[in-house]
Amino acid sequence: MVGLPVLGLLGILEAGRGIPAPLSITGDWTLEFDPAAHCANSPGSFERQRAWSISQSGTEALITFNDGRATTLEATVNGVALTAKSLTATISGKPGTRTLEGVAGFDGCAPVAFRAVRQAPKKGGV
Amino acid sequence: MLNLFQLVLQIAVILVAARIVGFLFQKINQPQVMGEMVAGILLGPSLLGWLAPGASAALFPAASLSYLNALSQVGLVVFMFVVGLALDPSELHGYGHAAVLTSHVSIVAPFCLGGLTALYFYPRLSDDSVTFTHFALFMGAAMSITAFPVLARILTERGLLRSRMGTLAVACAAVDDVTGWCILAYIVVLVRVAHAARPAWVTIAGSFVYVFIMLVVVRRLLPALERAFRKRDHLSDNLLALIVVLVLASALATEWLGIHLLFGAFLMGAIMPKAPDFTRYLLHKFESVTVVLLLPLFFAYTGLRTRIGVGGGHAIWFYSAIVIVVAITGKLGGSMFAARLAGMPWREAAALGVLMNTRGLMELVILNIGLDIGVISQAMFSIMVLMALVTTFMTTPLLEWVYPTRLFRAQVTSEEVHQSVA
To answer: B113 CA to chain A: closest CA distance, Å?
Structure first.
């Protein structure tokens, strides 16, 4: 009565071990931009984009910019690639020391190279 | 910084919404608590935040929610004590094979189906910060819970608590709740130990010591409270305060051990003396403020974290349908077939399955723990909240359909006649 379900559950757990999950990017990130980057359309744009907060559900992610307006950008995680309307980046490192490297464009500025480091994994909603 | 005006305004809005929606749900034969849960969802991004994002942001700014959360957590601690208090192991006596078989299958079947579902959802709605084992075990536990308090309330409101079916359902739900919480405690420990600096053996050894102290030492001291109650037919304010302190101390012990605050409160309630008049007295003392004031805050906080249909496109509705079907198949189907195997007629077995499928408030508690410890994502949380609402909402109409109240009442009457003759 108990043995069969337990065996079944163990089988499920064993089968699930081989399933890859999307890379975790949830948490607070600090950003560094190419020091030579400058945006004539919106001076100071890159200085305002020093921190992001990302929430994630599977392959769907929501990037919230720390720009005083809490602008959000919907993004998708596909393997090691993070893509959004004005952003492409590569995810690297282990969950505890994850980094993003890519190019992003803000406030009508031409895309510039950036590097982001995750502060500490953030759990929970709201 | 605490904005007192904003917090009081939030509480007032939540209470008004909870009472109005609760009243409307009662009008359609749903328990009040079902309406209160829906009111919480309506105040969140699923409705208010979607219809009037400006008003929602002004009323519930993200920075203010920590205070709302703190109040709702205090309410939950007291509520879990009340749930434990209402549990009586002696209720299982006399129901033998049917109760034991039904309660076990009603946990095992949805648990295995939940684990199986995890194979599909893990690559879609989780990420690599959570291991598959933790995700699958949590999904299993979340699928297998029965809302003992909501179930008892539905049966009471319909006058069915004393029927054979009602008492059997309550007994099975009580076993489910205790087992479900034990499984969840194990999962929380697994997840927290994987991320904690403290060695695993401290949590494990500490948990054994804690349970030993509670069951052997504290449990033997508690009858003194009942004796004090018998002397004066009530407890002094000092003794009531002592009970609150014991609940908080037990909750703090489990939180410190890395299990969770709520397990300690639940266990404290479960080991209290179970004399009916003493239990009724304590329930009366603790239940009012918790149910009327603090639980609606928890529902609202849950609603603010729930984004039904927001993001994820059509896939989210498809995922929700899968979860709802699996949850009903495992819990309702599992309980029904087990009861039938134990010799109950089909109609009664189906009614028992419907009752066991009530997840309600307890499911929301478990899901919030899952989201807090990061074992489920925001989208999975919202899908499971929707499942909890659907399975709770369907209980009353489905029960009326498979086992009309007149049949229940006839059963209660014939049992009463049988008892009086005996």
So the answer is: 9
Angle at B82 between CA B77 and CA B85, to 5 degrees: 125
* Structural domain count of chain A: 1
Cβ–Cβ of B112/A15 closer than 8 Å?
no
Burial class (CB in 10 A: 0-12, 13-18, 19+), B244: middle
- Give me the numbers of helices (H) and strands (E) for chain B, helices first please: 23, 0
8 A C-beta contact, residue B177 and residue B366: no
The 10 Å Cβ neighbour count of residue B71 is 18
Q: Are A23 and A110 in contact (CB under 8 A)?
A: no
**Per the CB < 8 Å rule, is A21 touching B130?**
yes
Domains and their CATH numbers in chain B = 15-53+71-421 (1.20.1530.20)
Length of chain B, please?
A: 422
What does the DSSP assignment read for B355-421? HHT--HHHHHHHHHHHHHTTSS-HHHHHHHHHHHHHHHHTHHHHHHHHS-HHHHHHHHHHHHHHHHH
| pLDDT string in tens for chain B (422-residue length) | 778 899 999 999 999 999 999 999 999 988 888 899 999 999 998 889 889 988 998 899 888 888 999 999 898 899 889 888 887 767 666 666 677 788 888 889 999 999 999 999 999 999 999 999 999 999 999 999 888 777 877 777 777 766 777 778 878 887 887 788 888 888 888 888 777 667 778 888 888 999 999 999 999 999 999 999 999 999 999 999 999 999 999 999 998 888 888 889 999 999 999 898 999 999 999 888 888 888 899 999 999 988 876 556 678 899 999 999 999 999 999 999 998 988 888 998 999 899 999 988 889 989 999 998 889 998 999 999 999 999 999 999 999 899 887 776 666 666 555 555 54
Q: Distance (Å, rounded) from C-alpha B70 to C-alpha B141?
A: 25
Give dist(CA B370, CA B375) in Å, integer. Answer: 5
Within 8 A of B381 by CB-CB distance, chain A residues are 125
- 3-class SS of residue A123: coil
Contacts across the A-B interface (CB distance below 8 Å): 105
Q: For residue B118, what is the nearest residue in chain A, using CA coordinates?
A: A16
Q: Are the C-beta atoms of residues B137 and B117 closer than 8 Å to each other?
A: no
The amino acid at residue A34 is D
Which structural domain, as residue segments, surrounds residue A111? 21-118
ipTM: 0.85
CB proximity list for B319: less than 8 A, separation 6 or greater: B121, B124, B125, B312, B379, B383
Which is nearest to B360 in space by CA: B150, B138, B87?
B150
Question: Which residues have a Cβ under 8 Å from the Cβ of B343 and sit 6 or more positions away?
Answer: B97, B98
pTM of the model: 0.85
Note whether residue A4 is domain-resident. no
CATH of the domain at A51: 2.40.128.20
